[in-house]
Specification:
- By secondary structure, the protein is of the alpha+beta class.
- The chain has a single domain, classed as K homology (KH) domain (GMP Synthetase, Chain A, domain 3).
- The chain is built from five helices and three strands; from the N terminus they run ααββααβα.
- It has a three-stranded mixed beta sheet with strand order 1-2-3.
- Strand 1 (47-55) and strand 2 (61-69) form a beta hairpin.
- Helix 2 crosses helix 4.
- The protein is elongated, with a radius of gyration of 20 Å.
Length: 144
Amino acid sequence: MRFYSVICMLKSRMMETNRQKKIAGVIQQDIAEILQNAMRESGQGVIITVTKVHITPDLSDAKIYISIFPTDNRDRIVMETQEHSNAIKYQLAKRTRHQLRRVPELHFFVDDSLDYIDKIDKALKGDAVDPIKHPEILPKRKKM
């Protein structure tokens, strides 16, 4: 009986509450507009999409996953976005001043799901190198 209650408690901690989901949706929409406007003004020709926002239960931290196309300068753009997170947080606070009392700390991460989908697509089409015929392309396993 005790084991079951511990499992239920862990599951409830992992699930997002409705409040977290609503705040994440508001932040996702506003951050997307802020980043897209910044990219438009900079003239870099980059498309940024906010794919997912995770909020901690105490609403103090937000993990923001962004997808960038084209992927050439993806890491540089994410680093710049993280460096300017205070300015982004200020703009977000101005937009959500009637909805949120306190804006969470923003942490930006790369969402590489498009790359993963592209690899699967190439493999299905036969464009990618077959690892069964060419095992040398696979990463070497590390011995422990």
